[in-house]
Design brief:
By secondary structure, the protein is mainly beta. It is built from 3 helices and 15 strands. The chain has one domain (3-374). It has helices at residues 3-27, 329-340, 358-374; strands spanning 41-53, 61-81, 88-106, 115-128, 131-144, 153-166, 169-178, 185-194, 201-206, 209-215, 220-236, 249-268, 271-289, 301-305, 308-318. It has a 14-stranded antiparallel beta barrel with strand order 1-2-3-4-5-6-7-8-9-10-11-12-13-15.
């Protein structure tokens, strides 16, 4: 068993072990207080683009296929009120696991490699009044399964501050290390939101996404979005390309911009189905030599690829108990920060925030009126 497969099975065993432990903790002891505001989440997603011609005769045509799994769970949670008895503070430490299998298909190559990407990380999420801080660190590798060399490890990280000014406006600032543009970049993060999170709202967040999200009834949400989609991975050549020969390690760097519409259907509490389709534009692919030191060599082959459609289908599952967050807009922003900055860029981007229930106000008002009449 080569090093990559050994690491994969270790990650899988870790996931199963932690999953079993989490399930046992969820059963808990009757009467125990629920301390967390965040429930464990498991998401799966499939992403597809069709064939497009390449100018390189050796590679011929290109398409992309990807299946992803993302999991996180709180391993520690605490909340308290400050001395004013009004300001709520929450603290969550989370374990994260992200895995992807992808196939960048080149029709001209004899063998099509399947790339495994896996990362295990930590996430710290703190809220206090109207403020949210999030830090995450995720070591990961992305390498074809047939490679005999040790995988090349890289790191994703983000540090973000979010200020919920009001129910209808928030801004966030931070710094993030990302590979979404087909190479390693450390970039400032700047974002803002107009509109309440449980109603129609517009969110801009450089460099991650821009979206207009709106409820379509009690169980349906729509989302018009623009976001980058890319990664960097390592394969071991089985064919000759340019000056490189079979057996050498090369990097595949891909990036594109996705413009589309996303539909969320909340089948039942804790289960959401996602369907997204649209146009993949500004597509680019590059091949570069993988160095022993992990530095990023200049690409020996780069090509812009014609626009195409894309299709994405996914499901997310939330389980276990948590404290009520209805109309707690700081916690809404905290959940949204986690999902829009997910390090695996995997799984449906539904943050699970419920649409505002106008009937709730009517019930509360009628109940109050009955109490007044009784008095």
């Amino acid at each position: 068993m080569n090093a990559l497969k050994l690491i994969f099975w270790k990650l899988l065993a870790t996931f199963i072990f932690l999953g079993a432990g989490i399930m046992s903790m969820m059963a808990g002891v009757p009467g125990n207080e629920v301390k967390r505001y965040i429930r464990p989440s498991l998401s799966i997603q499939s992403y597809r683009t069709p064939w497009r011609d390449l100018q390189n005769d050796t590679l011929s045509q290109y398409r992309f296929r990807q299946n992803a799994l993302a999991f996180y769970t709180p391993v520690w949670a605490h909340s308290r009120y400050k001395r004013d008895s009004i300001t709520l503070q929450t603290f969550h430490g989370l374990f994260t696991l992200n895995t992807q299998t992808s196939r960048p298909h080149f029709k001209g190559l004899d063998r099509q490699e399947q790339i495994l990407k896996a990362g295990i990380g930590i996430r710290l999420l703190i809220t206090s009044g109207k403020n949210t801080w999030m830090y995450q660190l995720v070591p990961f590798f992305a390498q074809d399964r047939s490679a005999k060399d040790k995988p090349v490890w890289r790191t994703l990280s983000s540090l973000v501050f979010n200020r919920t000014v009001s129910a209808s406006f928030a801004y966030r600032l931070g710094i993030t290390r990302t590979f979404l543009f087909g190479n390693r970049f450390t970039l400032p993060l700047i974002g803002f939101r107009f509109g309440a999170m449980d109603r129609t709202h517009f969110l801009f967040q450089f460099p991650r996404n821009m979206q207009l999200k709106f409820p379509m009834g009690k169980k349906h949400w729509g989302n018009v979005f623009l976001k980058p989609n890319g990664n960097i991975s390592t394969i071991q050549l089985q064919d000759s390309i340019s000056r490189f020969v079979p057996g050498q390690l090369i990097q595949i760097r891909r990036n594109e911009m996705n413009l589309g519409f996303e539909w969320f259907f909340r089948l039942r509490p804790g289960i959401t189905m996602q369907l997204a389709l649209g146009i993949a534009g500004r597509r680019r692919i590059a091949l570069a030599e993988e160095t022993q030191s992990g530095t990023f060599a200049k690409a020996f082959y780069t090509e812009n690829i014609a626009r195409s459609g894309f299709l994405s289908l996914g499901f997310s599952f939330r389980f276990g108990k948590s404290k009520n967050i209805d109309q707690h807009y700081t916690l809404y922003d905290a959940l949204n920060t986690m999902h829009t900055l997910d390090p695996g860029n995997a799984g449906p981007s539904d943050d699970g925030i419920p649409a505002k229930n106008s009937d709730l106000k009517k019930i509360q008002f009628s109940d109050l009126q009955d109490l007044l009449e009784e008095e």
